[in-house]
Structures are given as C-alpha cells and as structure tokens.
Design brief:
By secondary structure, the chain is mainly beta. The strands form 23 sheets. Strands 74, 75, 76, 78, 79, 80, 81, 82, 84, 86, 87, 90, 91 and 92 form a 14-stranded mixed β-sheet that branches. Strands 51, 52, 54, 55, 56, 57, 58 and 61 form an eight-stranded mixed β-sheet that branches. A hairpin with a 2-residue loop joins strand 11 (95-103) and strand 12 (106-115). The longest helix has 13 residues, at 375-387. It is flat.
Length: 1227
C-alpha cells in the first residue's frame, strides 16, 4: 500500500479541500498471531475441558479446525462447537497427546495429559445383609453394591473364607450351609479387586430356629358330624432368618374318630377320643397336640310346667269382626300353657304346639301356639337351664280352645277329647341330621265349647257418597266411628259339636236396628230384617239399603209435608226397612241379633274346658258367641240447611216482584269470612248461630261450595237444577259477565265427610225449619248479574284545583274538589268511598302534638272531620260513602268543599264502587291550608363579615303547622324613590334552606338553629347618580340582616306566609379594609369608573319594555339587557369581578333578588371622548321570563312590572348599582 504524507489539511465553513505534497511511502502488512486458552490441558478420566482460540489481529470470517492426536489410543477426543473458535476435550483413559488447531493460515498444538481415577474409579463396596443365619443344608442370598465413578464397572464376585462351613455362588451370592459354625463371605470389585466387603453367616441346626408351637383351642368336644377349626401359633428363635417358615402340619391320631384337613379343620366321625398333632415345618420335632372328644348330641327336652285357665271378659271392638280379635280368633275359652324347654345340644329355631282330637293325636293341622327363637334366645335358654338363672322365663302359650275359621266357620277343634303335643324345629346335629322333632309328652284335654255364630258388619256408600268418601267411614269430633250407605251383616254359624250332629245350627236369624232418634210418628226409629240359614250351610247375609237423603231439588227426604218443596221418599218408611237418611243419636244405633238355636238355649250357657279330667270354668256366665246387642253410628242424613244467607244490601236490593236482585263484581268472594263494601259473600248461617259445620248431630264435618247457573238455561228454578246445570265458583271473576241482574241464580251445596250432601238455593231473608230440621218456609231467591268492569273516578277540576291555601289567596282560591264518576252497569246507593284525613297540631300552635282527624262526611257540601283525633278515639280512619244516588245510576258528579281557614294538611283518597263491588283506581287529592305566618327571632351575627366571602347567620322560627323555607335579606338603608319603597335590600332566595314542604310525611314546626348563608357577601351598595358612580360612605355599608322564614303553604304565583325580623349589623362586625370614598373614583385612569348603566331592548317598538310568556300575539318572548361600564381610553380596566341583574316588583318594596349574571363584556375604545368614556365595556344578556320567577302571577290578562338593576361587585364585595329599568312581563 502507499501512505501519502499530507502536508496541508483545511476545512472551510461551506466546503472543504485537501491539498497534498511530498513523497510516497510503502507500509508492510501486520502478522497474525494464534493463541489458545488454556495453552495446555490436564484432566482426569471422565472429565471434559473447554478450549478457545483467539486471532490477533481479529480476522473477519476466519475458519478453525481442531484435530486430536492422543499418544494412547482412546485417551481423549476433541469436538468443535459448531464452526466457532471453541471446542471441548473429553478425557476417557489415562494417556497424553496434543490437539492441533489451524486458523488464520497458522497451526498451533495444545498439549493434553489424561490421568486415571484413584482405585480404578471404585470408591467402595457394600454387602447385604452383613449378617445372616441359615440351617445346615439351607440357603440365603447376599447382594453386593459397588460404588464407582461413571463408566467404571460395578460387577462384583463372591467367595467363602470357610467353605467347609458355608459355600457361596461367586456370581449370584447364594450361600448354602454345610456344617454348624460361622463363615465369612467376601464380595470383591471386578474393576478394582483390592476393594472388598465381608458378611458373617451363621450355620445352625433347624431345631434351633423354632422355639414353640401352640394350638388353639387346646381341647375340643364335638358331636358326630360337627367341625372345628384349629389354628396354631409358631414362635421363632430370635436369630431365625426372616425366611424361616411358620407353616405347620396337622395329623390326626385316629382318623376313624376325627379327621383334620391341611388347614386345620377337624371333622367329628364317631364317638371316642383322639388327638390332633400340630408340628412345625421348619423344625418337625417342635410340635403340640389338641385333644378331641366326640360324643352324641344331648337331646331336646320339652315338658309342660302347668296349664291355667283364662278368666277374662274382653270388650269387643265393634269396628272389627265381632266375636274375634283382629286375627279372627275367638276371644273366649282360652288357657295358658307353660312349657319348660331344654334345647340340649340342638339349635332351636321355633316351638309349635298342636291341638288334635284324641283319636288323631299326630294331627298337626291345628297349630295353636308358636314361639320363634333367635340364636341369641336359644343360647340364653340353654344358659338359664345350666345356671338356674331366672332372667329367662319359660315359654308361655295362650291357647284359644274356641278358635275357628272366620270364612268357613270351621272350628280349630271340635268338642270332645283332645291331645296337646309340641314340635321343636332346629338343627339337632348327631348322626340323624333331623330338622324337627315331636316332643315326648302328651297333654290330654276335654273341650266343651258352645256353638254360636260370627258376625261381620260392613257398609257400602252410595255412588254420591263414594265420590267424597270411597269407604264411607270416618271418625267424628266426638271420637266415634261413623258409617254411611248400606249396612250388611254377615252371620257365620260356628258349630263346635261333632260334624253331622246339627246341634245348635240356626234356622233363622233376625237383625234389629233401634235408635233414640224419633220418626215422624214420634216413636223411636226401628228397622228389622230376617233371613234363613242356607240349606248347604255357610254364612247368612242381611243388608239394610241406605243412601244419603239428598233430593235433586235440595230438600232432604222425610219432611212432614211438601208445602215448602219437601218430599217424602222411602226414607223413614218402616215398610222399606232401609236406612236412607238415618242418623244415629248421641248413644248410637243399637243392633240386636236373634236366631233359632242362639240366645234361647240355656244348655250351653257356660263354656268350660276339662284339663286332665278336671273341669275348669274359663269364662263364667258368658257365651263364646256374638253378644246380644251392640252399637253402630250411622249417618245417611244430609247436612243441616242454612237458616239465612249473607246477602248484603251493598250488592242487592228488593224489587216489587218481590225479588232480590243485584250484581256480583270481580272481587266478590263467597267464602270471605267477612263482608265489606269492596267484597261480599254468601256465607250461610245455621240454627244455633253462624256454624260452618252443621250436620244434625251426625259426623259434623261440612264443606260448602256454591254453584251459579244462568236462569235462561233452567227449566225451573230449583237447587238441584242450579247444581246440575251451573258452574262452581268462588269469586265473581269465575263467572261470565252479564249486565242483567236477573241473569244468574245460585245454590249452596253442603257435603259432610261421609259424602252426604244437600243443595239449597241462595235466598234472602230468614228460612224457617220444621221439627225435623227441614225447610218449612223459604226466603226470597236471589238473582244477579255479573259485572267484571271497574268503574271510573276522576277529579274534574284537578288541573285548576288550588291545592295550597295561604293568607294571600285564602279569600279567592277555589279548592273545592269536583268529582266525576261513571260505570257501565251502574252504582249503588252511595257509590263514592272517601278515606279522608286532616293532619294538624293540637291547639293549632307550634308546640301542639301532630294529630290526625278523620273525615266523617259532608255538611252543606263541605267536608267535616271528627273533632277528636285518632289518638283520642283509638280508631283508624275508614272510608265514608258519599253522594247518594239511585241504584243503577251509571254516571254522576259531586263536590267536596274544603275549608280555606282551618289549618291542616288534607288527604282524600277517592274510590268509586259500583253495585257489584268493583272498585275504580284510587285517586288521591291533597290540599294544604295555612294562613298564619311563622314567628322569627333568635338571630345571631358573625363577629366578622368579609366582603365577597361566604357569611352564615342563624335564626329561630316556629309555625302553627310546618315551617317551609328560610333565606337572608341584607338591608343597605333607605331606598331612593326610583328603587322602590322602604329600605334597599338584597334577598338571597337562591340560597334558601328548606325546612319542610307541603304533602310530605315530616312536619317540622319549630327550629332554633336555622342556618342562612350568603355565598358572596356584598358589604356595601352604592347607587349611581345618573350614569356616574355615587360616592360610597358608611351609610352604604350593610345596615341590617333580615331573616325571612316561610311556612310550608308555598304556592307559585302567590305571596307565601312569611315571618321576618330585622337585626342591625354593628359596623364593627364588618371588615372595612379597602373601603372608602374612592372605591369607584380612584384618581387612577386604569380603575376610575366614569360610566355604569343598564338598558333593555326587545327589538319591537310596539311592545317596548315588555317580554311575553308566549300568550300575546306578536309580542317578543325575550329581550336583551345591556350593561355598560366605561373609563379612560387606552387604560381603563373593569374593576368588577362579576356583574349581576336583580329584580323587584314595581308595586312592591325595594327588595331585590338576583335573576342572572351577565357575561364578560366587549371592550371598545371611543376616540370621541377619550378621557371620560373613551374605553367602553359592553355586556349584553339575552333574557326570557318563561320558567323564571318573573313569570309568577302573570296570566289571565294580568301583567307584572319589575324594576331591573345591574349590580357590579368588586373583589372586596363593594357594589355599584345602576339606575332601575322597568320591564313588564305580559301573558
């Protein structure tokens, strides 16, 4: 290359130039150096060593090659990492060599030395277990674990130091005992034979490994065929190997007596004694023996301890088959047999006693007693017999000697000689394997039972009764069981004499029913039926037909005459022998059964049983047959008819027919417990009072349902026709609408719990009953229409109604409520319901308690109220009907006047109710009357009043009903005539505090700490003189605070009841910093105010100075107020922080209220008069009176004129007031 020797080098601002001079010089290239890190490598077998190559100077894109050259083959290898300048050397075996690296055209060699591992890489060897015991000829296996570095062999070889005592397999480590003694077994590393470990092996005799064998149980007694499981416990010696067997062998000494399985299960074969030997498999000489005794099982022993007779006259449950208990066993003629049971070796499961004729002693068909044994109970009996314990009682069997089959009448055993035997069932063991035995005893009996009959009484309800009660049975409130429908007596002859003798077999049976209730003839009601016994034998059935007494027309059967629609049916007609309409008296109906061969013979009036030849009376003086009479409770009578229905005048009226007509509304509820003007019901009244369950003393549970039918669909008006053709209903809205009050008729249906029913027309007026409780004289049937449409009620003058009366409008305001109502069907006598209240304070003073007085009606069209409050009467206010009308009137009007002078908050809830009871939506009207102003006092003034900052005064006030609002007014002394009369005041109504309001639920009549706040206090108010500022003096400072408090009788457009007081503000309390005569005329051209004025323009000369609320044609509804402030040209700056517009009525005092704040003005310089009004700031404000306080009182041709002023306020709260501008608000 050539190196140029530059002699001059210059760079300019806008360019550069190179100037060279001198001779050329040749420079040789720099040589490349290859460096390895590390320069040499030393490692041990198994390690890896990284190496890195560096070229100096660095060469971009250089290539590198690495080649290993070990002196001993396999000593190490080298691997380049990708194509980089780094590589890794892996050391595998002891040796040396070099790694040749070529890079940058040069080659270097890195020496490598690999050293071997210590002990050939073997760190140690572990043999397990380190000690073991084997028997001569026995074996165990040892294991060896070689601890070595990676890649080093972990194989080991075993050898025995005393092969005459124990040998070992060199590869597997299996040790075999040769002779008694101790041998050392050595394990040696294959990789480093110098690394060894040893284990001690003890070789012992087999008998030294087992200490004992114990059998369980140690002796056994069995019956032939029984089995017993033996177990053995083998105890090993402490040094016995874990692999020493604990198994045993079982051997029987005499297999003809007992055999034993390999698992130790012993089976008894025959009587005798032997033993079972149990020996250890590991040490057969260690053994034990278990004694075995085999014998025949002890027999079962069963004997009769005693037999006793039962002397018991049990009451018969008449709801069960008569003459038996619930299982059908005759309840008389019983004996008690007490047995002693010795189960021996048997497992007894049950004991049965059989009563058989003496001629057939082994007959087991007539089982008379059974006792079932659990295993626990059987074992308890056995233990009791062995120990003599009294805890287990002997077996006691009650035996009914007069038992019979209740279907066939066949007795369990007939009269005569009999034998009592027992059968034991269980597992008896022994060689027989029997499961049951007949005990070896016989008890002889002689049985003498009186033949008789078994009676089962059943009932069957008729089809109508069954619809309600399928069985026709129920328990009454008195606890008696009642039945309904037909009554059948099934009489079954039971003959205990020998078959074929025909002794005591009845020829005819008669059933008689009598009751204390009297029939029409004045005699007790009686029914009687008889029947002959079937020639072929069997039961006799006698049935008394019966059904409910309901007739289709709703009149119960059996009345004395048909004058009131009653009919005479088969009920109470003795010839029919039925029980239609039958009702049992309080003592029930007596049932008498008589028959040939029964009750007439004295030959068998004593039931006796002979025990072992001795006769014992078991039921003295009684017979084992059906008693002579018993009682049943029968109710086939329809429930009692109503004596009156709850047909209200509110819904129904009498016409000239005469008929009782009316309307049911949607809310009409026939099951309502009470009636009101909103709903009514048809609740029935019964004899003795308004009883809901009246059933002539029957089962006495009655439900009442009602049915309505359109009269146009009825062939005749009867309760039955209404029921069959009508619709069940519970309220008016379940029926179709009908605008005729003769459209529907109704019937009540009474059903008792047994299904007896009565239909009865709903009638008006009293209903007379005859001596039998049936209808003798009816009332007037009612007919009705259904009105499902609500009437409509509205307050016609709601929009113009003056709801708030105060002192300013009490003489002129009309607060009378004009009601208007209409209905599609018509109203009742007094259709409008008024729930009215007046809330006022007791004594009409602030301290009086708030009371509620109830509306009582209208006097001369004006609402009147109870002079006593609800607190005094203790009764809540209720709705009062008003506006008397003719029934059926469909529309009407009415007026409720409200006094303008009696203080109170009035609430009226109006609801129109038509003659069906439907109600309109409730309309609420509230009015507030208070013409007395609050009383104000107790004013406090802050010690320091700072201009343009928030100031809070407090005041106290009270009112005769409720306080409304409170706000402050600040007086600035007498007003100039152009501003109005009185003192010039600013009223801060925007910051008023609400203390209460009309028509709320909170009445606050007094408060001692009312806070009234002025957000930005104006400390002085200086009027302009023309357009020039006046000179402020202390007379312009705030002079007094006037707290104004209103009551809640606030109505827009009227003056509220206001109370106020004036409290002078001490000058010392006003912060006067910066106040003086030069506030607006400072002598400084930047702050001197030379001009301040307010102007108004609506752009319509025809309505100059006026703003319309939109009701005057052509009149503008808005205008522009312009505030102009001027000073010296080029220097004047507006000194006001804000400019506001205030208003006051022209006809009122000079009390002004803020209405708006004008926006920031537009500054223009006027060169025509630079010193005075050279710089003019103009602030326009577009204004509409709609929706503002200025609109109050305007309308109906009435306009209101207001004085409007602009007030500019400085940062210190000093204000400059413009001359007033009059603006008139027109409709």
């Amino acid at each position: 290359m050539r190196l140029v020797n530059w002699r001059t080098f210059a760079i300019g601002v806008t360019g550069f130039g190179l100037v060279a001079c001198g001779d050329d010089v040749t420079i040789p290239p720099t040589p490349i150096t290859v460096t390895a890190s590390p320069a040499a490598v030393s490692c041990t077998v198994g390690q890896q060593q990284p190496i890195a190559i560096t070229l100096t100077p660095a060469q971009q894109g250089a290539t590198y090659t690495f080649a290993g050259a070990p002196t001993q083959a396999g000593a190490f290898t080298v691997a380049q990492i990708g194509t980089s300048s780094a590589a890794t050397i892996t050391c595998s075996a002891p040796g040396s060599g070099v790694v040749n690296v070529t890079a940058g055209g040069q080659t270097i060699s890195i020496p490598v030395t690999v050293t071997g591992l210590p002990n050939g890489g073997v760190q140690g060897i572990i043999i397990a277990p380190s000690a073991a015991t084997v028997t001569v000829g026995g074996s165990t296996t040892l294991s060896a674990t070689v601890l070595a570095n990676a890649g080093v062999s972990t194989a080991a070889r075993f050898s025995s130091a005393q092969p005459n005592i124990a040998t070992v397999d060199s590869l597997t480590g299996r040790v075999t005992g040769v002779s008694v003694g101790v041998a050392t077994i050595i394990a040696r590393s294959v990789a480093n034979p110098g690394t060894v470990a040893g284990a001690t092996v003890t070789v012992a005799n087999p008998s030294d490994l087992v200490q004992s064998v114990v059998g369980n149980p140690q002796s056994v007694t069995l019956q032939t065929g029984q089995t017993q499981q033996l177990t053995a416990t083998v105890t090993l010696a402490p040094n016995a190997p874990a692999t020493t067997s604990r198994n045993v062998r079982y051997t029987s000494g005499d297999t003809s007596i007992a055999t034993v399985s390999s698992t130790g299960l012993v089976t008894a074969r025959r009587n005798g004694s032997t033993s079972i030997t149990i020996s250890s498999e590991a040490a057969p000489t260690i053994a034990t023996s278990v004694g075995i005794t085999v014998r025949e099982p002890a027999p079962v022993r069963l004997s009769i301890a005693n037999v006793t007779a039962q002397n018991n006259q049990t009451n018969i449950d008449l709801t069960q088959p008569v003459g038996t208990n619930a299982t059908g066993a005759n309840q008389t003629g019983s004996i008690f047999v007490t047995l002693n049971l010795d189960p021996g070796d048997a497992t007894v499961s049950r004991v049965d006693l059989f009563l058989a004729p003496a001629a057939s002693p082994n007959d087991t068909t007539n089982r008379v007693c059974s006792q079932v044994f659990t295993t626990t109970l059987a074992d308890a009996y056995r233990l009791a017999l062995q120990t003599g314990s009294a805890d287990v009682q002997p077996i006691t069997c009650p035996i009914n000697l007069a038992a019979f089959d209740t279907v066939t009448g066949r007795p369990g055993i007939r009269n005569g000689a009999a034998v009592l035997r027992a059968r034991v069932t269980g597992s008896f063991g022994g060689t027989t394997g029997a499961t049951q035995q007949i005990a070896q005893f016989t008890q002889n009996l002689t049985i003498t039972n009186l033949s008789g009959f078994f009676v089962r009484a059943t009932n069957r309800p008729d089809s109508l009764q069954a619809l309600v009660n399928a069985r026709g049975t129920a328990q009454g409130p008195d606890g008696r069981n009642w039945v309904a429908g037909s009554l059948t007596f099934r009489i079954l002859p039971v003959a205990f004499d020998t078959a074929g003798t025909n002794a005591n077999v009845p020829g005819q049976v008669t059933v008689t029913l009598t009751d204390g209730n009297v029939s029409q003839t004045g005699t007790p009601a009686t029914r009687q039926l008889s029947a002959l016994a079937p020639a072929a034998g069997g039961a006799i059935e006698i049935t008394f037909p019966g059904r409910t007494a309901t007739q289709p027309n709703g009149i119960a059967a059996g009345a004395a005459s048909g004058a009131a629609g009653n009919v005479s049916a088969r009920s109470f007609v003795a010839a029919d022998q039925n029980i239609d309409g039958w009702t049992s008296s309080g003592a029930g109906t007596n049932v008498f059964i008589n028959g040939v061969g029964f009750n007439n013979s004295a030959a068998f009036n004593t039931l006796a049983v002979t025990l072992n030849g001795t006769t014992v009376v078991t039921n003295a003086g009684a017979q084992n047959q059906f008693p002579g009479s018993f009682q049943l409770n029968i109710d086939n009578q329809a429930p009692q008819p109503a004596t009156q229905f709850n047909v209200l005048d509110a819904n129904f009226t009498t016409t000239a027919t005469p008929a009782r007509v009316g309307f049911l509304g949607r809310e009409f509820a026939i099951n309502a417990p009470t009636a009101s003007n909103a709903t009514a019901n048809f609740r029935p009244f019964f004899a003795g009072g308004a009883t809901l369950n009246a059933d002539f003393g029957g089962v006495d549970r009655v439900t009442t349902t009602f049915f309505a039918a359109l009269n146009a669909n009825l062939s005749s008006l009867t309760a039955g026709n209404v029921f069959s053709s009508g619709t069940q209903f519970g309220s008016g809205n379940q029926l179709a609408a009908a605008n005729s009050n003769e459209a529907y008729s109704a019937a009540a249906r009474y059903v008792d719990v047994l299904g007896n029913a009565r239909n009865q027309l709903v009638e008006f007026g009293p209903i007379t009953l005859d001596a039998n409780g049936q209808i003798a004289a009816r009332g007037t049937p009612v007919t009705f229409g259904v009105d499902l449409t609500d009437p409509v009620f509205e307050v016609a003058n709601l929009g113009s109604l003056v709801r708030v009366i105060n002192a300013s409008n009490s003489a002129t305001a009309n607060n009378d409520i004009q009601a208007r109502y209409q209905d599609d069907v018509g109203f009742g006598a007094t259709p409008i319901l008024v729930l009215g209240t007046r809330q006022a304070r007791a004594g009409d003073v602030a301290s009086g308690a708030l009371r509620t007085y109830c509306f009582t009606g209208l006097t001369g069209g004006v609402a009147t109220f109870n002079p006593l409050s609800t607190a005094e009467t203790g009764q809540a206010c209720t709705a009062i009907p008003v506006f008397a009308t003719t029934l059926g009137t469909q529309q009407g009007t009415g007026t409720i006047g409200v006094t303008n002078t009696e203080t109170g908050q009035y609430t009226f809830d109006f609801t129109a109710r038509d003659q069906g009871g439907n109600r309109s939506q409730t309309v609420r009207v509230q009015e507030y009357v208070d013409i007395v102003a609050p009383i104000v006092g107790g004013v406090s003034i802050p010690q320091t009043l700072v201009g343009n900052q928030s100031v809070t005064f407090t005041a106290a006030a009270s009112d005769n009903l409720e306080l409304g609002t409170a706000f402050p007014q600040i007086s600035y002394g007498p007003a100039a005539p152009e501003y109005g009369t009185g003192e010039l005041q600013i009223a801060y109504t925007a910051s008023q505090v609400e203390l209460g309001r009309a028509f709320d639920d909170v009445f606050t009549s007094s408060r001692a700490d009312i806070p009234i706040t002025i957000p930005q206090f104006i400390r002085s108010l200086t009027p302009t003189v023309g357009t020039a500022p006046g000179t402020p003096t202390q007379a312009n400072l705030a002079q007094a605070v006037v707290p104004v408090v209103t009551d809640a009788a606030i109505l827009a457009g009227t003056q509220s009841n206001q109370g106020s007081t004036r409290i002078a503000i001490p000058l010392a309390n006003i912060n006067q910093n910066g106040f003086g005569a030069t506030i607006f005329d400072t002598g400084n051209q930047t702050s001197d105010v030379n001009f301040f004025s307010l102007a108004f323009d609506n752009g319509n000369a025809g309505f100059a100075g006026q703003i319309s609320l939109g009701g005057t044609s052509g009149a503008p509804t808005s205008g522009t107020f312009t505030v102009t402030t001027a000073g010296q040209i080029g220097a004047f700056i507006n000194p006001f922080v804000r400019v506001e517009i205030y208003y006051s009525q022209v006809a009122g005092p000079a009390i002004y209220q803020r209405i708006a704040q004008v926006p920031i003005g537009l500054v223009t310089d006027n060169t025509g008069n630079p010193a005075t009004v050279g710089r003019v700031i103009t602030s326009p404000l577009t204004f509409s009176a709609i929706g503002t306080p200025l609109a109050a009182g305007v309308g109906g041709g009435v306009s209101v004129a207001y004085r409007m002023i602009a007030v500019g306020i400085t940062a210190n709260g000093d204000a400059l007031v413009s001359q007033p501008v009059v603006v008139t608000i027109i409709p």
